[in-house]
Design goal:
Oligomer: single chain
Order of helices and strands: EHEEEEHE
Helix content: 10-25%
Strand order of the largest sheet: 2-5-1-6
Radius of gyration: 14 Å
Number of strands: 6
Number of helices: 2
Strand content: 35-45%
Length: about 100
């Protein structure tokens, strides 16, 4: 990879759509500069999430590229939500064209 590429941590959050406003608020609180939200379908330990009825049984996927420190804060803040909501989150180190 070229040394001119930026380095960051990609955090991916997949969770119930009812969490969207709360997750956006969390990202804003952590001064995250940007994020992408995508409707998501699939199956897992919480059953199938097919998004067949608006607002019910639907998931979203949120992606953001942040520093390592912010990724750790974000993942810690998400932990309590797992006891009540279907939610997974993971991070990956990435190189790319972003600021």
């Amino acid at each position: 990879m070229s040394s001119s590429l930026a380095k960051g941590v990609l955090v991916t959050i997949i969770g119930e759509a009812v969490l969207q406003d709360r997750l956006i608020h969390l990202l804003t609180k952590l001064d995250v500069s940007g994020y992408t939200i995508i409707p998501a379908q699939g199956a897992g330990s919480h059953g199938r999430r097919m998004g067949d009825m608006a607002g019910y049984n639907t998931n979203i996927e949120i992606k953001t590229v942040v520093t390592s420190e912010i990724s750790s804060q974000l993942l810690e803040e998400l932990k309590p939500l797992q006891s009540t909501y279907a939610l997974i989150a993971f991070r990956q180190t990435v190189d790319g064209l972003f600021d």
